[in-house]
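Page 37, continued from 36.
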């Protein structure tokens, strides 16, 4: 009990030091408190949802870099290139922005950090300008400490929610040790706004969700006439909140929520999104039954082209912003 109390105090202290925000809701004087968010147990989640404490990473092969030939694109604008890295039953998305900056959304499980760094460096980068940890489950932030430690990192965005795991503590410690700060990822935050290029956060809209998945940072990227929506593990509650808020969710490329779990990707949400491409980051033969056949059926009902990291490997989608896309997968090569 004493060890757990010490760890809890350490996490609280790290958050007080690290977190800053665009809004007055988070600051050194008003940090997010561990007690505001009850720990999420396996029993409190959907039966097929992975628990961060199980640390049961599905086996996967190292993700090779997948090169997009710019001749595959249709005009001379700078490309936006999005790599959905195959990290098994986890998420990690590396984005090469048309302004020559980079973005990383999540970094897989604890064991995936080195592979993510290798993938980024293999494309010739040593800097992540915008780093997002969508929510504090191990299969999303597990590799973040390695990424932050080994690469140059600019801005970091994480939702206003705490967790008592060693994984979460490791991320906070390396952020502190590197002298970095965290901006609260919540609805209304604009990460980047330039002519023709916008990155904004549509969710979370609350500080009182019962499930950590629903704190997931949902990120919309628009590049002229092209658009991407990255939903983390957001489930039906934040999906409904986004619909009720009246956001234009009609995008071309959707990162399917929660590894294709039936708790996400409601029929109403997918009808609003109507994606051309739907990417599911999922581990082969995972024990959670992901992706759900009901989600596959809904996506097929929207005539989306479904790409899965368990079947296709790393998926790379590139666009010049004209609404057309070039798609490559590592298992094609």
């Amino acid at each position: 009990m004493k060890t757990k109390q010490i760890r809890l105090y350490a996490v609280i202290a790290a958050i007080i030091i690290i977190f800053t925000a665009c809004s007055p809701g988070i600051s050194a004087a008003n940090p997010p408190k561990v007690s505001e968010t009850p720990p999420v147990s396996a029993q409190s989640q959907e039966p097929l949802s992975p628990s961060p404490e199980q640390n049961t990473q599905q086996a996967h092969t190292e993700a090779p870099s997948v090169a997009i030939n710019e001749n595959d694109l249709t005009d001379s604008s700078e490309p936006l290139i999005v790599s959905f890295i195959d990290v098994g039953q986890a998420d990690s998305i590396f984005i090469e922005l048309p302004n020559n900056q980079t973005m990383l959304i999540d970094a897989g499980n604890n064991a995936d950090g080195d592979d993510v760094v290798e993938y980024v460096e293999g494309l010739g980068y040593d800097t992540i300008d915008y780093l997002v940890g969508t929510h504090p489950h191990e299969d999303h932030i597990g590799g973040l400490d390695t990424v932050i430690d080994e690469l140059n990192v600019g801005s970091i965005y994480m939702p206003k929610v705490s967790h008592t795991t060693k994984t979460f503590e490791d991320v906070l410690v390396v952020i502190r040790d590197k002298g970095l700060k965290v901006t609260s990822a919540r609805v209304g935050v604009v990460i980047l706004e330039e002519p023709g290029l916008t990155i904004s956060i549509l969710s979370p809209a609350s500080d009182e969700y019962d499930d950590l998945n629903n704190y997931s940072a949902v990120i919309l990227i628009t590049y002229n006439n092209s658009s991407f929506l990255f939903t983390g593990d957001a489930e039906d509650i934040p999906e409904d909140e986004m619909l009720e808020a009246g956001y234009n969710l009609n995008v071309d490329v959707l990162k399917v929520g929660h590894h294709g779990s039936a708790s996400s990707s409601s029929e109403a949400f997918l009808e609003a999104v109507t994606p051309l491409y739907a990417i599911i980051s999922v581990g082969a033969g995972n024990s959670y039954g992901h992706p759900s056949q009901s989600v596959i059926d809904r996506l097929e009902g929207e005539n989306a082209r479904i790409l899965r990291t368990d079947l296709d490997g790393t998926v790379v989608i590139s666009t010049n912003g004209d609404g057309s896309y070039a798609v490559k997968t590592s298992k094609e090569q």
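Confidence is low (pLDDT under 50) at residues 1-6, 20-63. Flag for discussion at group meeting. The two ends are 52 Å apart (CA to CA).
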